[in-house]
Amino acid sequence: xxxxxxxxxxxxxxxxxxxxxxxxxxxxxxxxxxxxxxxxxxxxxxxxxxxxxxxxxxxxxxxxxxxxxxxxxxxxxxxxxxxxxxxxxxxxxxxxxxxxxxxxxxxxxxxxxxxxxxxxxxxxxxxxxxxxxxxxxxxxxxxxxxxxxxxxxxxxxxxxxxxxxxxxxxxxxxxxxxxxxxxxxxxxxxxxxxxxxxxxxxxxxxxxxxxxxxxxxxxxxxxxxxxxxxxxxxxxxxxxxxxxxxxxxxxxxxxxxxxxxxxxxxxxxxxxxxxxxxxxxxxxxxxxxxxxxxxxxxxxxxxxxxxxxxxxxxxxxxxxxxxxxxxxxxxxxxxxxxxxxxxxxxxxxxxxxxxxxxxxxxxxx
Length: 365
What we know:
- The chain is 38% helix and 19% strand.
- The protein is α/β, with parallel strands linked by helices.
- The strands form four sheets. It has a six-stranded parallel β-sheet with strand order 12-11-8-13-14-15, with helices on both faces. Strands 4-5-6-7 form a four-stranded parallel β-sheet, with no helix packed on it.
- Helix 11 (285-292) packs across helix 13 (334-349).
- The longest helix has 16 residues, at 5-20.
């Protein structure tokens, strides 16, 4: 999905972090059939754009795009991919779907990396085939503990924080920045049912906190993926002080995504309802990028407060009143919050720190 730069950055942080640790790491991806008469990009555009990304970030000889169930391979050849799978020590499957015939099944340590806690555990083995893995990592800090409200079954989840390659995300602390912002998908996960209850997506949470900009007298910018036909929802957002930005223009590639955050003043964001209701302890990879950039993050609580310092640089809220108060608190001591944000990123989210621990947990220290 070349236009969804946040998703690209999730994977890129691993590549950059592992490279810094001296690990030979490869990006293997799969792509369904592309028809430019139906889809908005051609195969040539997608593959050339990815090749440019690999060149820019130093892994141009270490990627493979498996196209249409193996009909074609871009980057590494099929033979090179199969050889790699026979020699590799660890697979980090970031929310992907593993097929039994995949050559990656030859890798002895196969870790599923859960970046959608709560929903992953609900869908579990039935939809995601978790049983094809033998290690399980999750960005839900409470998953597998008594604080988490969803059963985890036979899978032993290891919590970790989303890594950020700090050298790619330098601090830009500047009191002149005015944009309070976030990057979001209006339709991010419409929800899942568990024990007769709905664990919702992000849309409902936006409606719960719809009046925050108006009550705080602060405009909040959303680089928001939303359908053009959803004019009523867009109108409601605009009437309450949200400013909708074109996500493809403001955050549609890895560089514009980073600049959108770099020149923001702070992040304000809600979470998916499922993260909140399950008390997953999820923290966003996007929020980690804001923190690394020296931007305070004001985010809806998912129960992560037991795992991260909260109140300075990173401020959580559960009610509209708390959200409005948090915006004022950050603004009143802005530079102190900025410094704390970067400090949190360096201490907790540094890719070298996070991935060193992950490798050790996988038996590869």
